[in-house]
Design a protein that fits this description.
The model has no long low-confidence stretch (mean pLDDT about 80). The protein folds into 2 domains: about 50 residues; about 45 residues. The radius of gyration is 34 Å and the shape is flat. Helix content is about 65%, strand content about 0%. It contains 4 helices and no strands. By secondary structure, it is mainly alpha-helical.
Length: about 130
């Protein structure tokens, strides 16, 4: 066991002193491996915890007639994505309607013009010019 940890520490030391391209390759590679491990564990957990939809042995016709097929994981993700996008679409439409009613439906007028000059400095003493303090 000590030999494996020594080899691992030497490899990490080699990666630390290598150039940025090598570090980036190792970063992407190890991130991919870690992600695949996590996804594999998650899928294994899903297979273990979710009930199977297989027909009981000896009665395939009865199971096919009485129990509808449960949705698969891709169907679940598809339905979830459709629900989320529909919800976002409704919220976006409501927000646009509120903005439209706020500006157009209430009789308010939005004007984008420059400010009028309403101050004319007449009779003021000129300011002294000097260097800024350091």
């Amino acid at each position: 066991m000590k030999r494996i940890t020594d080899h691992f520490e030497r490899k990490l030391a080699d990666i630390r002193v290598s150039d940025e391209t090598t570090k980036t390759v190792w970063l992407y590679g190890l991130t991919t491996v870690a992600s695949l491990i996590v996804i594999g564990l998650w899928l294994g957990y899903q297979q273990y915890t979710l009930p199977t939809v297989a027909a009981p042995v000896g009665a395939p016709q009865l199971a096919a007639r009485t129990a509808p097929a449960a949705p698969g994981i891709t169907d679940t993700f598809r339905v979830g994505a459709e629900t989320i996008t529909a919800s976002l679409g409704v919220r976006f439409t409501r927000g646009l309607a509120l903005l439209k009613n706020a500006f157009l439906g209430s009789g308010n007028v939005v004007s984008v013009t420059g400010a009028e000059r309403n101050f004319i400095p007449e009779g003021l003493a000129p300011l002294e010019h000097g260097a800024l303090p350091k």
